[in-house]
Amino acid sequence: MNIIDFEGKVPLEIIGILGELIENAGEGNDLSQLEKSIEVSLTFIESENFSDRERGLLNYNISNAWSYIQRIKFPNEEFPLETVELEKQIIHLRIANNLMAETDDDFNKCQILTNLGNLFSHIGRFSEAQEYFNQCLEINNDFGMAIGNRGFGLYYYARVIFDPIQQFMFMKYARKDLMNAMLSKQVYNEAKYAFGEMIQQIENAFSVDDLNDFRSYNNFYRGIKKNEKEYKEWCAINKLFINPLNDILTESVIAEDSLFIPTLIWNPNEKLFFQSMFNQLKQEYTSARFLFYEALQNYHPHFADKNVVLMDTLDYSVYSFTLEKIKMVFRVCYSVFDKIAYFLNRYLNLKLDEYRVSFRTVWYTNLDKNRGLNNQFLITKNWAIRGLFWLSKDLFEKEFDSSIEPDAKEIASIRNFIEHKSFKIVESFEDGWSEKTETFEIDRGLFYDKTFRLLKLSRSAILYLSFLIYDEERKKINHDPSIPAVPINFIPIEDNEKI
């Protein structure tokens, strides 16, 4: 590394050299060389001589280097809950994904999305992992490693689902993906061997006839009004129902918010607090979801805007009841996260100050320093707890040094300005305006996109919360000798239409 001269080399040559160095260092378990390769790569990351695609490839290479470092430091694939190497991989892959979005480099876009799907499945964000695999397959529906790894992800997703019929459905679709990946020439033999072993496990648990039965479901939209049908179709296509099956199906059979928290060990002298609060979270989310949909359908001013006289401030700003709905959605979705923190503080008996706890701080023992993970989380085997912890890292708080979401700081600023300061939406947007004035200014379409991402994120958080509770309640039952243990078995689907 010290003797390589990059002078006079074009960006793709530099990327190729650094990529080869990283691969060789990874194969040789050379930690020092990997760290040097990252250091040198970072010197080029903001170079004006590099295009978006080239900077995307640099970030992809850096992420690969961090994955090798993780493998060297944690050779048994077990990793601490808070792992810097995982954070770095996700950050650089997300940056690469954003930079590559408008390019025609489909192969590398698919590689990046597949790696993101694998990482998100690995850290317990299994619902969102499916979205990355699906984005890849929308680009190339024959990308073998995405198909196989989506099947892997569905298999492990099924393990946290407590409804046996839904669990079977996930296994069925997991097997389908794994079998399709086995036929792909892109998939290397070691991966095919792993896929084959998982197929055998599924077939040992279920009848092959049942696994092969991909039935057509009845049309459950029949008989409902046109506007309700269109709304439900939009929710299903965008995978917005509080129903895990919406991660694998978009047919009308899953068009309901059916997920709830499982049966709790409960003192009859106490109020049904957790059930009631989950009701609240679900209702707030579904109401925000409809407001967002309604705003999308009503671009033109509402009659409530008539005779509302506003001054023209010559800055292309726009005001309307419809845009206020989008702001409401943004507020509600962001508030879901702190309410989940409040829920966790009580449910897990963390004994944190409920007036200060937030979704970023609930995991730590010291709310002043926000450092030192609670031992209850350090030793947890609850995959959904890990998922919620890593989802919290998508949010920004000033007490923390970083986030794994590149746009987290901006989203936090938007929330702050909407709630406490001056915020407006503009039709003609100039980068940097929000930094030059006392008002946060944002393009209408960009604000819609960021709000939609928050909507999706809050849906995932609610799913993980339900699965988290199931695993914790199962452990309580199995650890209490006075209560018969309830094993988690895979139960084949019954011959009916209900899912």
What do these coordinates show?
With 499 residues, the chain is mainly alpha-helical. The protein folds into 3 domains: 1-103; 105-214, Serine Threonine Protein Phosphatase 5, Tetratricopeptide repeat; 259-479, no CATH class. Helices cover 58% and strands 4% of the residues. The chain has a 3-stranded mixed β-sheet. Strand 4, helix 17 and strand 5 form a beta-alpha-beta unit. It is globular and about 70 Å long. The chain starts with 10 loop residues before the first helix and ends in a 20-residue tail after the last helix.
- The general outline is globular
Number of strands: 5
Please state the structural category: mainly alpha
Q: What distance separates the N and C termini?
A: 57 Å
Sheet with the most strands, sense and barrel status: 3 strands, mixed
The value of Rg in angstroms is 24 Å
> What are the secondary-structure elements, in order, as H or E?
HHHHHHHHHHHHEHEEHHHEHEH
User: Residue-averaged pLDDT, rounded?
Assistant: 88
Total DSSP helices: 18
User: Spans with pLDDT under 50 lasting ≥5 residues?
Assistant: 481-499
Tally of separate domains:
3
Helical fraction? 55-70%
